Amino acid sequence: MVSGFYLRFPHLSRDTLTFVADDDVWTAPVEGGRAWRFSSDRAPVSHPYLSPGGDRIAWTGVRDGAPEVYLADLGSGASERLTYWGDARTRTRGWTADGGILAISATGGAFASHVWAHRLDERGGAERLPYGPVNDLSIARAPRRSRRGGRHRGGRREEP
């Protein structure tokens, strides 16, 4: 994984911060205070992402060799490996709006150089997303429209 800095890959969700330090995933309250070591696999980890609800955390780890996606519940601390892809390009990239884990990997493709986006569920089920080869990906919710249904452009309101 990436080295050279002590605190890496920060991510915020609600009132919790997660980051990587000393090759482990850590969590801390946003308002400050003590950080807690969340993983201790004695293997490099990267790209931790807290779920939108702030109750789960997914990350990339190499505990079993190649990078794979892991998931844990913040309350219990129990973690599980979700992927068995064996691909060096595997990375956790966040969460989907419906609570799935967003990951990228070249697994299952015709070319090892083509990385695809996947949606993982809590049980490890994977669905390749229809975006074609990607280098990276982030999915955000669409902005809400006003109650009146109009859009604002250049300081004036337009009707749909």
TrEMBL record:
Region Disordered, as annotated, extends over: 131-160
Q: Where in the cell is it found?
A: Cytoplasm
Presence of the UniProt keyword Nucleotide-binding in the record:
no
Gene3D superfamilies given for it? Tricorn protease N-terminal domain (2.120.10.60)
Alphabetically list the UniProt keywords: Cytoplasm, Hydrolase, Protease, Serine protease
SUPFAM superfamilies annotated for this entry? Answer: Tricorn protease N-terminal domain
Main location class: cytoplasm
Ranges of Basic residues compositional bias?
A: 142-160
- The answer to keyword Transmembrane applying to this record is no
Check the record and name the InterPro entries matching this protein: Tricorn_protease
Q: Which family does it belong to?
A: Belongs to the peptidase S41B family.
Xref: PANTHER family? TRICORN PROTEASE HOMOLOG 2-RELATED
UniProt name for this protein:
Peptidase S41
**What is the species of this protein?**
Streptosporangium longisporum
Lineage here is: Bacteria, Bacillati, Actinomycetota, Actinomycetes, Streptosporangiales
